[in-house]
Design goal:
about 20% strand, Ubiquitin-like (UB roll), alpha+beta, disordered N terminus, 5 strands
Length: about 130
């Protein structure tokens, strides 16, 4: 894929999430004229979890992407599908879920809580040992 080619209007991206909570997704139809913010809006419509634009953080080559950056400036020339990492922030989890997450010895599964809450619960359990009073 050569984004320097004036004929190329769209591209595809491989999107990965932390801890593989979602399977890798190939997102097609990404307009190279979009900004990162436009891409986030696209993700909020087509990505399986439909994350809010304000909750998304996109990382490429180890760098957090600012909203004003254009896609065409990110992926100038490459022969493979570029890989982005999508990280979503957690906003005010329900109190019941928070209490459930930090109970000592309780099994935490992704099906019992949302994805972001699942990640937080696993980190708390590992580093705090499931103690309350966080």
């Amino acid at each position: 894929m050569d984004l320097g080619d004036s004929q190329q209007k769209t591209t595809s991206l491989l999107v990965k999430t932390p801890n593989q909570a979602q399977e890798d997704q190939i997102i097609e139809g990404v307009d190279v004229q979009w900004t990162v913010k436009d891409l986030k809006a696209h993700f909020s419509r087509v990505y399986p979890t439909k994350p809010a634009v304000s909750d998304q953080r996109l990382i490429f080559a180890g760098k957090l992407l600012p909203d004003h950056l254009h896609i065409k400036d990110l992926f100038r020339q490459t022969d493979s599908i570029p890989t982005l990492h999508l990280v979503c922030t957690m906003r005010n989890p329900p109190q019941a879920a928070t209490k459930m997450e930090i109970q000592a010895g309780e099994e935490v599964t992704e099906s019992r809580v949302g994805w972001c809450q699942y990640v937080v619960a696993r980190v708390r359990k590992r580093f705090v040992g499931g103690r309350t009073g966080l």
